[in-house]
Amino acid sequence: MTSRDRAIVLGLVALLAVLTIAIGAPAFLPTTSPNPSASNAGASASASPGPIAGYREGILGRPGSINPLTARTQVDRDLVALVYSGLVKLGPDGAVAPDLASSWTANAKGTHYLFKIRPDALWQDGQPVTAAD
Length: 133
What we know:
By secondary structure, this protein is α+β, with helices and mostly antiparallel strands. 27% of the residues lie in helices and 13% in strands. The protein has a two-stranded antiparallel sheet with strand order 1-2. The protein has a two-stranded antiparallel sheet with strand order 3-4. Strand 3 (101-106) and strand 4 form a beta hairpin.
């Protein structure tokens, strides 16, 4: 390797280091608050954040149906899980956890279940969820 080659490699390494710093530096800088009231000196440090403007979740694939009865693909099932609530759901450890039901019991054979619906379970229009639903 000649001295010219070494100079070129050293220059490219230096250029790569400068680009890495220029691209990565904003991630380490302190962020400024978009809320002007939060930047006031008298603002409380324990102030709660405002309401969430929206929720966005990515999926891979094209949904075919968001009907829980006809959801066949993983994309369909993911959308059903985001849109609909069930009586129970799987918790983070895989155990059955309450969702719309506050409690449930089963007969000795495990063939009949009795669910008690949470009193605060409401439809999107504010009507209570009942057993007739």
